[in-house]
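debug: dumping io for the single-chain case to check the tokenizer round-trip. Nothing else runs in this session.
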Amino acid sequence: MAGQHDSSTLGGIIRRQRELAELSLRQLAAMVGISDPYLSQIEHGLRAPSERVLHAIAASLRTTADALVEQAEPPGEGPPEVLTAIAADPNLTARQRQALGESYTAMTGMTIARRGRRTANSRRPEA
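debug: decoded output
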């Protein structure tokens, strides 16, 4: 929803991560190399960041552009509750949140792949 300060939008996720990193809007904008008003418009959903700007924001917040986008996916398509909890935990640094999120995603991805192989093997006709 453009123009709203919704924490489930990409802009809202960026704002929440900036606040968790204890950075002012001005500080993050300077780190990224963009103007304060442009970052404010991104956070409020008035403008979408370019690919370059999104990657620079993510790097400045010590996360990845993919992680930011995944957190902003619509309900039902977004990250599991555990990733949301990790992202929102104020007792973790941005780097710790990134590491935990990446570990969780890698582990669940391995499990899903393993299950997929088992299912595929069980469907093979006997020779």
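debug: round-trip ok. The chain is about 65% helix and 0% strand.
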